[in-house]
Every structure is written in structure tokens, then in C-alpha cells.
Design goal:
The complex is a heterodimer of chains A (226) and B (93).
Chain A (H helix, E strand, L loop, with lengths): L13 H7 L3 E5 L3 H13 L3 E5 L24 H11 L5 E5 L15 E4 L4 H13 L4 E7 L2 E7 L7 H5 L13 H19 L9 E6 L4 E6 L4
Parallel strand pairs in A: 1-2, 1-4, 2-3, 4-5
Antiparallel strand pairs in A: 5-6, 6-7, 7-8
Helix pairs in contact in A: 2-6
Chain B lengths: L1 E6 L1 H7 L3 E5 L4 E2 H11 L3 H6 E2 L2 E2 L4 E4 L2 E2 L9 E2 L4 E5 L6
Parallel strand pairs in B: 1-9
Antiparallel strand pairs in B: 1-2, 3-8, 4-5, 6-7, 6-9
Classes of the chains: A alpha/beta (226), B alpha+beta (93).
Chain lengths: 226, 93
């Protein structure tokens, strides 16, 4: 057991604590959601994070992408993110993958979960399909302005991403985003991922979580298979 | 017979309403529902939800938790006790 995890021991059973330390995940994107997810995941004490992103750091990222500063502009996001995460020395292996996510990528063969940290639905549909084919749960999150949503896709147990979000395509417009709202959605995704991984029944099964931070309201919408 | 329409996210904020309930005397289509909503919300929903005779991309319409694109688009029938959920999904990351 990792010694720095003592304050969370009581939250889980001994078996669950041991399991969390063996958890391997893919974080698909090292932007706002992805950097926050990675931060939360190493604090949970998981074993390995495959962090994907093909982009370089830009000035417009700095309002919410928590591992980057002005000195990092122009550098590969995943390299900087790995450097920051490794600095904490918390025994989570970080594998930085500077790659575009498309139909041709091969998912790592030892992952338990895929975290959606993407910024568009077209790529989300591709990655959810790849995850589904490999029977790996996909934890969707999206954020825009004061609003966000979270949906868990667990193969053979829940509805699919397209069941809910059919008809949503890339609009070409860049959604407005801010750090506190991004952090909340990323944190909910990590919590849902942990529940799914630990096979807890309390995860968002066939429910869409709609988060409205302007009104401070969170709603669950019941979903059905078509 | 009564149906319920729920608004979320930007729709709720823009309209300052979390939804409406309508009494209906017979089954109506989604297009007829949008017409009703337009009367109460000054044409907001046809602008947000309709384009070229079909549902505009970028907004989600669920009937009892099912995306209406998987049912019958604008001709989807709405019956007593049904719940229609409307929201623009958040795409960013």
C-alpha cells in the first residue's frame, strides 16, 4: 500500500484499496479535462496513466490546463504534463503519447478505463467505438461555459454515446471554458471511473448527469436503450 | 393527458424556466410540441432546434430518455405522461 494514501484508506475496503493501486487508464487528451483527471488519478494512487495528446501548449490553454505555464508555450503538452506529474514522485507511471486520436490508434492492452478528455464529439464517437470494441468502459465528460455533462458507457451494461448524442457534430466554434467548471466535471469523471472499476452499483448507470454551475444544480436524466 | 418538457443548461438560463407542462387532448408530434413551445417562448425553440425541415445539429431532444433521432425525428409521437428533455450538450474539454 502506498504510504501517502492513508487518509483515504477508510473510504474503501482493503480489497478496493489494493485494486485501485493496480488500476491502469487512458486519459484521452491533455487539455483542461485531461490535466485535471491526471492530477486526481495520481492522488488516488493508481498504477499507470497513458496520457494522449498531439498538441503543443498555446497561450489560450493557460486559463484551465493546470500543468502548463507561459514558459511551456510551443512545447508538447504530454511531455510537460509527464514532467509535472513525475515531479510529485507518487509512484504512478505516466506514459506520454504524442499522438492524434483517430480510427487508426491501438488502445494500450492493459487499460481498465478510458477517460474522455477530448474537445469535440466526432473524436469522442471514434474513441468510444474503439473502447467498446475492446470492452473497456468509457467515461464521457463535456464542458462549456457554466455547464457540463457526464455519462458512463460500460459495454454490455449501458447505453452508448451515440444513443444519447446522435446529431451532435463539430460546430467549428470554440466553446468557452473556465478552470473551476472544468475541474468539477473532470473530478466527477474520475469518481465515476473509480466506481465502475470497483464494480460499485452506485455508478451513473444509464443516467446522464447534467451539471449547471450557474444555478448550482446537478440533475440526473434517465436514459433508455433504443 | 399531460406531458412535461424539461429545459437544461443554456436553454434553462436563457428562458429563465426549467420547463413546462402541457395538457393535451390527443397524441401530438414533436413538431407540434415545438410549435406550442414557440408560442410560449417567442420562437426560441424553432430557432434552436429546427433546420431545413429536420432537427438542427447541436441540440439534444430526448423523449423518455431516448434521442428522438432514434425514434422518428420531428414526427416522433408524444403521449400522455411523456417527458421531453431539451438541452444543448457541452462539447468542450
Amino acid at each position: 500500500m502506498k504510504d501517502y494514501l492513508q487518509r483515504q484508506f477508510e473510504i474503501f475496503t482493503e480489497e478496493e484499496n489494493n485494486k485501485i493501486e493496480k488500476m491502469n487508464v487512458m486519459v484521452a487528451g491533455a487539455g483542461g479535462l485531461g490535466t485535471n483527471q491526471a492530477q486526481q488519478l495520481i492522488r488516488m494512487g493508481i498504477n499507470k496513466i497513458y496520457l494522449y495528446d498531439h498538441d503543443k501548449v498555446e497561450l489560450s490553454n493557460l486559463n484551465r490546463q493546470i500543468f502548463y505555464g507561459k514558459d511551456d508555450i510551443g512545447k508538447n503538452k504530454v511531455d510537460i504534463a509527464k514532467k509535472q506529474l513525475d515531479k510529485f514522485d507518487l509512484d504512478t507511471e505516466i506514459v506520454a503519447i504524442h499522438e492524434t486520436i483517430d480510427e487508426n490508434i491501438e488502445l494500450p492492452d492493459d487499460i481498465d478505463l478510458v477517460f474522455d478528455a477530448l474537445d469535440n464529439f466526432n473524436t469522442r464517437f471514434i474513441l468510444e467505438e474503439l473502447s467498446y470494441s475492446s470492452k473497456i468502459p468509457f467515461i464521457h465528460g463535456g464542458i462549456e461555459s457554466w455547464f457540463g455533462q457526464v455519462l458512463v458507457i460500460k459495454p454490455e451494461e449501458t447505453i452508448r454515446l451515440k444513443d444519447v448524442f446522435s446529431g451532435v457534430e463539430n460546430s467549428g466554434k470554440t466553446p468557452p471554458v473556465m478552470s473551476p467548471a472544468v475541474s468539477i466535471i473532470a473530478s466527477i469523471q474520475v469518481l465515476e471511473g473509480i466506481k465502475v472499476y470497483l464494480q460499485k452499483e452506485s455508478y451513473l448507470k444509464n443516467k446522464l448527469l447534467i451539471v449547471d454551475l450557474e444555478s448550482c444544480e446537478i440533475q440526473k436524466v434517465d436514459l433508455k436503450n433504443t | 393527458m399531460q406531458i412535461e418538457v424539461k429545459f437544461y443548461s443554456l436553454f434553462k438560463i436563457n428562458l429563465k424556466s426549467s420547463g413546462v407542462k402541457y395538457d393535451i387532448v390527443e397524441t401530438i408530434t414533436l413538431l407540434e410540441l415545438i410549435d406550442k413551445l414557440d408560442k410560449d417562448f417567442e420562437g426560441y425553440f424553432s430557432e434552436k432546434l429546427l433546420e431545413d425541415g429536420d432537427i438542427k445539429t447541436g441540440s439534444i431532444i430526448l423523449l423518455n430518455g431516448i434521442n428522438v433521432l432514434h425514434i422518428n425525428h420531428l414526427e416522433t409521437e408524444i403521449n400522455d405522461g411523456d417527458i421531453v428533455t431539451l438541452f444543448p450538450p457541452s462539447a468542450g474539454g
